[in-house]
Amino acid sequence: MPIRTLRTRIAAGLVAAACTAGLTTAVTAAPAQAQNFTTGVYSAAMKRTIPVKILRAANGSNNAPTLYLLDGLRAPNDNSGWLINTDVVSFFANKNVNVVLPFGGAGTFYTDWQRPDPKLGWPKWESFLTRELPAVMKAKYGSDGVRNAIAGLSMSGTSALNLATRHPNLYRGVASFSGYPLTSQPGFAQGIGVAVSQIGGDVNNMWGVWPGGSWLANDPGLNAARLRGKRVYISSGSGGSNIDPTKEPTKFAQLVPLEVAASIASQQYVGVLRINGINPVVHITAKGVHFWVDWQNRLHEAWFSTLGPSIGA
Asked: What angle do CA 21, 22, 23 make, to 5 degrees?
């Protein structure tokens, strides 16, 4: 087998596995606070109501900045992995920022699909996240409509970078935790297709038939120059861990190879950003696996180094 073909297949397999991000180990949630609530936001683009968790700014401001926090590949329709598995509620409880966590979006890459899908319907998440939801946040929930940032993990780390790249006038800061921002590259593109199929969708309905359709237009790496002047945070581990594959083979197979692919993609993307005059905050380490405890820690770091400063919070 040619080396190039072998590398492509390896990359595809790793990305498909890594995008799952459905590894949920519940932790004890912080007590709900009065200013935190779940509401329904109607999407005209998708012709349905999307549940959204909103953590209001601690100072009760009606002119606050807003952070949009996206979920992973297996995002449930009635909750968010961030709420299930991290301290996001308590962490932001004393911070003057609205944090918005939309529910659902499993397997959609939070993008506008070209065609309806027999399993996933007709996802129009880009329209919802960049037009409909921000308008509601400004009209009803105290967003100033100007100071916005976005972040995500695994599948949605890719999505956050893509949305920030495609809508640079909307977001001032963006963070990707274990994302895959080289979406149209051989291997990574095929991995995305396999990941979507794990949720039952057909990736050809998303961006068309690779490498045509809108694959190139939705590749953060190819369009990195649009992030000039923005604050960017990129993180991943490299799969190093204390997990013994002989004693915990399933856990090892789920958590370690996943982060290897994220590391490869993230390191290449950082290089592309720097070539384009963008100096991101980078946390790529030899250790670290595809798991919520790492993403929680990186969210904390990204907030203080990048996301918070980008929106003045």
From this structure: 95
Query: Between vectors from CA 171 to CA 234 and to CA 180, what angle results, nearest 5°?
Result: 35
134, 155 in Cβ contact below 8 A?
Answer: no
Domain containing 133 equals 26-311
Examine residue 290 and state whether it is found in any structural domain, yes or no. yes
Residue 273 corresponds to which amino acid? L
Q: Reduced to 3 states, what is the DSSP secondary structure of residue 58?
A: coil
Q: Pairing mode, if any, of strands 281-284 and 64-69?
A: unpaired
Contact (CB, 8 A) for 116 and 122: yes
Distance between CA 100 and CA 114 in Å, rounded?
A: 26
Residue 136 has φ and ψ, to the nearest 5°, of -70, -40
H helix intervals, 41-187: 81-85, 88-91, 125-127, 133-140, 155-166
Letter for the amino acid at 104? G
Considering the entire predicted model, what is its pTM? 0.88
Tell me the pLDDT tens digit for each residue of 207-260: 999 999 999 999 999 999 999 999 999 999 876 665 656 655 655 555 666 788
Is residue 112 assigned to a domain?
A: yes
3 lies in some domain: no
Q: Are 165 and 226 in contact (CB under 8 A)?
A: yes
Q: Which of 117, 108, 113 is nearest to 77 (CA)?
A: 108
Residue 157 amino acid letter: G
The DSSP code for 264 is: H
